[in-house]
Backbone:
């Protein structure tokens, strides 16, 4: 099997970190770059979290990390600190040993897709500011991307930051709408509701078992996700949510998808009440589809994939404060 060339566009906290690990360690992935976008936690903390993740995998410096857009296109940034804390799980490292690429994240997206047109896939698991900025900078960009997998929106369902909106679309709705209208050849959406809530939420007992596998990665996983599972349970979600790592997983392993259908997806930008709402029109309405929306995945197979990754023994190149290795 030839590995899939992929870029991860991320606002690194909790499950974003697990997504990076999957991109580094799954033989199906050829991770070309990580591009950072304003989202979950402060920008500097996101970058530190990405470097921390590379380090725990023993791959610090092997994949470039590019700082991208530090705020939404038109809006003020909205954090998710209440959900993730600072996204570090209380872990830290000497960041002076980590190198941040000089090239801006949007420039990296444009360059890598121009060097290999039609070959590179992008997995976007934060607000879509970087992707939209690439679209408006170079109108040929969307046509060069082999496939774009987006974690965002809900399928005419409940939100997670407001009653109507999922966080990534809410933070930069203008960017999300630009991306939906850009004409990507192969755009797939993995939603919060119903897919994450039903198929990508790990019950507490299984979550605790994964954290006790004994590897540095398993301990890292638990440290990164503890704050979020506590928050999830406090708002009535029965476990730890993993939409971001699912988004990469279904690119790498399409057999995980049990149901998917074409939709016309548009994102609300004008209403204060429904800002970021993703209206997903199915075939009945006769509108030209712009996305394949994943409707169901094999949760058991996805969790088994994560467990296999967490069993991998890695050796961090530099000490990680707060992480027990033995």
Residues:
């Amino acid at each position: 099997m030839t590995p899939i060339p992929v870029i991860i566009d991320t606002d690194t906290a909790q499950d974003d970190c697990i997504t990076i690990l999957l991109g580094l360690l799954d033989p199906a992935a050829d991770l070309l770059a990580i591009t950072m976008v304003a989202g979950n936690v402060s920008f500097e903390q996101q970058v530190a979290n990405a470097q921390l993740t590379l380090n725990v995998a023993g791959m610090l410096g092997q994949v470039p990390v590019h700082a991208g857009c530090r705020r939404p296109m038109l809006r003020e940034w909205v954090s998710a600190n209440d959900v993730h804390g600072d996204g570090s799980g209380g872990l830290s490292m000497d960041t002076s040993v980590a190198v941040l690429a000089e090239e801006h994240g949007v420039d990296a997206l444009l360059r890598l897709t121009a060097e290999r047109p039609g070959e590179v896939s992008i997995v976007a698991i934060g607000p879509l500011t970087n992707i939209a900025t690439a679209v408006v900078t170079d109108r040929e960009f969307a046509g060069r991307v082999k496939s774009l997998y987006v974690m965002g929106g809900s399928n005419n369902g409940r939100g997670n930051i407001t009653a109507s909106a999922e966080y990534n679309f809410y933070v930069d709705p203008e960017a999300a709408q630009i991306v939906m209208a850009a004409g990507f050849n192969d755009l797939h959406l993995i939603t919060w509701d119903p897919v994450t809530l039903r198929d990508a939420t790990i019950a507490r007992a299984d979550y605790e078992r994964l954290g006790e596998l004994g590897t540095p990665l398993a301990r890292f996983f638990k440290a990164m996700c503890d704050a979020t599972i506590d928050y999830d349970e406090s708002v009535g979600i029965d476990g730890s949510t993993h939409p971001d790592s699912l988004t990469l997983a279904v690119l790498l392993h399409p057999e995980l998808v049990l149901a998917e259908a074409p939709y016309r997806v548009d994102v609300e930008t004008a209403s204060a009440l429904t800002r970021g709402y993703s209206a997903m029109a199915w075939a009945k309405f006769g509108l030209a589809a712009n996305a394949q929306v994943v409707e169901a995945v094999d949760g058991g197979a996805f969790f088994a994939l994560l467990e296999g990754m967490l069993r991998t023994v890695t050796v961090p190149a530099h000490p990680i404060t707060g992480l027990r290795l033995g």
Q: What stands out?
A: DSSP finds 13 helices and eleven strands in the chain. The chain has a mean pLDDT of 96. Residues 216-234 form the longest helix (19 residues). The two ends are 34 Å apart (CA to CA).
